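Lecture 7 notes: from sequence to structure.
We start with the chain below.
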Amino acid sequence: MIKPPAQPASVSCRPNRREFVKRSGRSAAGALLGSAAVIGCQFQSDPSIEDASSSSPRAKRVGISLQIGVEILYEFVNDMKVEAEKPENKIHLVTVNADGDSIKQYSDIEGFIAQRYDGIFIFATEPDGLIEMVADARRNGIVMMNHSATPVTGCTQNVVLQQYETGYQLGQHAAEWVHKNFSGQVEVGVLSNRTDRFLQRRTDGVIAGLKETAPDAKIVGEVEAHTVQLGTDGAANLLQAHPAIKMLLSFSDDAGFGAYTAATEAGHTDPDKFYVGSLDGTQLVCEKITEGGIYHATWSYLFPYSATQWMRDMITCLRGKTVPPSRVVTGRLVHQENIEQFEKMIRNPQAPENQHLYDDPTVMHYLDEALETPLA
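Predicted structure tokens for the same chain:
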């Protein structure tokens, strides 16, 4: 198990978007689809409607395909855009969101391929149907890069997260709080994603870290939730069914923020009597941790650095050079004791003083082995 130093990480956020999410109570995906201009990306319903003349003759056209819109992905795309827009790079980005529809995502990617885009970035939750499309794109000289929970066979590069190990460390942190405040005994609710084989490892890690460090902690309920709204509804149901719950642990920040909302609405505001923790490291959640309330911790995958490096690797490929076929992202545990240090570290992934983090193996590291989609 990796034991990263107690350093921090997050992402720059857009205040008007965050406020909209807070006021509406909807999922971050739904809120952002209605305000795509906030993050400065070009969101379109279909790649075929793009006006190619908007790209200069020397610019490379690169598509970004999202299968679902959640807060962390929009922040990620915004950091990619910063690197792409540097004058020396000349990358014209087009981002499309399938809004949870895998068939539409396949159509979006086929549109990019048909228009002979130079490169395509993929964020997918259902990779099996992408293998043939990736092979077709590669035959046509298109650089294909995937940054999903599950690798896609044949991609130029797959980027994956250390799901289990990072979840385990969040579970350990939660367990330490249980020992400190409830002598090791507490009822816990879990918000999970069991539909993705790789994302499921996060939840497994969280539960293992909690139970192995605080074996008397009792998980009394688990619900599926991957958006803010599902997290709010799921956590509210858990709290109603099990009013003695003192801890809510989520596999993601979106569902975690929903759990936080449900908990505070139920009157849980004392950080010594209630704990919310999750994984991703969104700015929305980091702000809650800064407040010193019941949101105690998140795991940040240092996505601003991963996003920047991903775009740099795409640019390297578009210039005719090769990159390693795989990259693994780790990150940092972020909690109330290190949040200020974390914010300083993550504020500017482009800063000269932060460039050493791209070579830090506790942040990310490459593999020479090409990852493949696991067999069912």
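Points to note: The domain at 15-161+303-329 is CATH 3.40.50.2300 (Rossmann fold). DSSP finds twelve helices and 14 strands in the chain.
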